[in-house]
């Protein structure tokens, strides 16, 4: 009687950036054997997340995740990275969680295991036939992290290795506030000096929403432009949600600190910043726009801003923008009226004759939280507003597979856009 050779699982790369595709292969299986692949992750908040897929080996006893069809589980179809983007909290976890990276100098550890047969979600008594661990990083070797708390600016500057100068990016997140570093670290890993700016804080009274106006963001751009390792003429802005509104406000002013280009995700131009950020949120609240809830009491905020699109006085004059703009939205965004805003911006810029500067990407069945590729889709999660500290569960929208595609596709286009308008243009300038 032959002794069975133990199954072998390989995953490449075993250590890589979060935006790299993974390639998983299981060999030494019995031909046409049913197996379950599982990914298990322990978050920095001490919550377990998992995903699993059901496969059948080929006539050589091999499963190649990049080529073979997943028959069921957390995802279906041919999905090389399905075991990552379909991650969800394990049954029994705390409700309404969102997976985010806090410390960029440690990786997410993905435990990939092989199990006999097709298992439908309950892994309590399932022993593994093989196991491997993958490290997923937001920062590459040599990228440095510099805390910034000077000249009114609070944030973190991530610098690529080498003397530079590098193109710069001001990285702006949204209304949840705090200092969010992981996207800036990833951008620095792609060669950009990236400043993750904190501009809404419950801890630091000097950057409270009631004393931060547009001047604060202009000072941050000036800081980047003045840094010895940043190319002063090649600084762009990357905004998500409220960060998009900030970026549009800055670019429309058209002064000497104007950005070279903008990447704007899931935001709107119907938010003008004339005073402080606190004034903006107060005005939105006082206008009495609709705040809706679904059958699960999840908050839907898109109707809060939607009426402003009919009032020119409420909107940023995007016709004044003189730099290239990449605008990204999901048509199932339940948090902001991003598609309506995108169409209105297209009309405004066309009327002003600068529509050639605008590139719009609208993704079907995609929600608000369009993040770097393979980030697990979050349809709803707990949210604490930096404005009033109200804790609610917010409906972000989107469907897992389509949202995942949007994240992967948009990130590739974002990197191409940034390279074209920051790196390529700087190369051109150096030859003049």
List keywords for this structure.
Immunoglobulin-like, 432 residues, single chain, disordered C terminus, alpha/beta, Rossmann fold, globular, 21 strands, 2 domains, six-stranded mixed beta sheet
Instruction: Count up the helices.
Output: 8
- Which percent range describes the beta-strand content? 25-35%
Helix content: 10-25%
Poorly predicted runs are 427-432
Radius of gyration: 23 Å
**CATH homologous superfamily descriptor of the largest domain:** Alpha/Beta hydrolase fold, catalytic domain
Question: CATH fold name of the largest domain, please?
Answer: Rossmann fold
Gross geometry: globular
N-to-C CA distance? 76 Å
Mean pLDDT: 94
Based on the coordinates given, report the CATH architecture of the largest domain: 3-Layer(aba) Sandwich
Judged by helices, strands and strand pairing, the structural class is alpha/beta
Record field, number of beta strands: 21
Query: If strands are numbered along the chain, what order do they take across the biggest sheet?
Result: 10-11-13-12-14-15-18-19
| Integer count of domains | 2
Q: Mind summarizing the main beta sheet?
A: 8 strands, mixed
CATH class of the largest domain, anyone?
Alpha Beta
Domain BAAT/Acyl-CoA thioester hydrolase C-terminal: 213-423
Protein name: Acyl-coenzyme A thioesterase 4-like
GO molecular function: fatty acyl-CoA hydrolase activity
InterPro entries: AB_hydrolase_fold (IPR029058), Acyl-CoA_thioEstase_long-chain (IPR016662), BAAT_C (IPR014940), Thio_Ohase/aa_AcTrfase (IPR006862), Thio_Ohase/BAAT_N (IPR042490)
